[in-house]
Design brief:
alpha+beta; Lipocalin; nine-stranded mixed beta barrel; 28% strand
């Protein structure tokens, strides 16, 4: 038997480390996530089995400069909500939620698992993100900033590990977390029961966060649900009980 040169063996090992087995090659270890999913227990957590509930989130530790601005915005939002005049947020301003907030599943999510790619579609705003499997992540400077960033993933046993960069800094994060263009989102997506899915999300940002922040979303499979069209044409108005139309948006500026 002819032995491979040492340099070739080392090169093959490097390739294997950077390009893990695809879902097809991983075989039974890569579960099929295709289907429609809703937030497990909704936002009330009523009827949730504690064995499969999402664990409590970690604490978001913002750098002092951002923590002060965040506290001021939160206070302004609370006062505005009390007056019945909520401050414009992406959803009510007909803008996509972007990453990672689209994964909060305000409305159902659909996952399509195909060779080389996992596609996630949110019913809210008809948002679409694509996770490219077994590809090297780009350099941040090479990614055009967008709402969903650039996502690459690979399977580690039964867990889909996803790395996302390139979310533009105007897109507020989970719980309206501010971030810079250096934010990185790491997801560990796995089935914790046949029809219960967890997405553990860790957000790191050397500019706005003192340490990485981890939180988890849990979903339940909806085998008979068909995704609906969601087009946000004009969500700026509401009609009161007297039939009078009012504008519900205003800006902090």
């Amino acid at each position: 038997m002819r032995l491979k040169p040492i340099w070739l063996a080392a090169a093959l090992a490097t390739v294997a480390a950077n390009f893990p087995l695809s879902a097809d090659a991983a075989g039974a270890s890569a579960p099929n996530l295709t289907g429609t999913w809703a937030r497990y227990g909704g936002f009330s957590r009523r009827g949730v089995d504690p064995r499969y509930a999402a664990p409590p989130p970690g604490k978001m530790l913002l750098a002092p400069k951002y923590a002060a601005a965040y506290a001021l915005r939160t206070k302004a939002e609370e006062a505005s909500d009390a007056r019945g005049q909520p401050i414009a947020a992406p959803g009510v301003d007909c803008l996509p939620y972007g990453m990672p907030e689209m994964m909060s599943a305000i409305y159902p999510l659909e996952i399509l698992q195909t060779p080389g790619q996992v596609t996630i579609i949110a019913e809210a705003m008809s948002q679409v993100r694509r996770i490219y499997l077994n590809e090297m992540q780009k350099m941040i400077d090479d990614v055009a900033p967008g709402y969903y960033g650039h996502s690459v993933g690979h399977w580690q046993g039964d867990t889909l590990v996803v790395d996302t960069i390139g979310v533009k800094d105007s897109v507020l994060g989970h719980n309206e977390m501010p971030h810079s263009d250096h934010m990185r989102i790491t997801e560990r997506i796995r089935l914790v029961a046949p029809d219960i899915l967890h997405d553990e999300i860790t957000v790191s940002d050397p500019v706005t966060l003192l340490e990485p922040w981890t939180f988890t979303f849990a979903y339940k499979r909806m085998p008979h649900y068909e995704m609906q069209e969601y087009v946000c044409e004009n969500n700026h108005e509401y009609v009161d009980d007297q039939g009078v139309t009012h504008m519900r948006l205003h800006d902090l500026n």
